[in-house]
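EI: anyone free to look at a 160-residue chain?
SC: sure, send it
EI:
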Amino acid sequence: MAAEQMADEGRPARVLDAIDRAILRLLQEDGRASIRSVADRVHVSRANAYARINRLIEDGIIRGFTARVDHERAGQGTSAYITLKIVQNSWRSVREKLLPLPGVSHIALVSGDFDVLLLVHTADNRSLRELVLTRIQAVPEVLSSRTLLVFEETDIVADR
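SC: here you go
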């Protein structure tokens, strides 16, 4: 299995061809694109595009379809990355405590100077302060945090 990697569920990861990658790119740009539109843009039949998309879903490569949100227009004008140092081997417990917190949109276990990276969106700085100082720092396994305020962000998929 040199060219294949094991997927989360123990199945080998499928190697994608150029058409699969093109379909993924199109669906990332517009998850509501019609089968006809996708087929036309990648130069395959509608049946082929439909079968490929279904296979990408069944293989777990496409995990779902979602809306890209303008957080400022949605009343969440303050965004920040928060880094955490946590007690060793407490990742699963910490993740379960962070998941339900308001405004948390991404949680990652990372390597380097800190252990966890969060992306959060809140209404304002007061809400951000409340989230960090009273909710996140109240998690017993969180040893320290650092907050990086986002001044401007660019959605890479939307801008390609």
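EI: The beta strands are 78-86, 104-109, 116-122, 142-150.
SC: 👍
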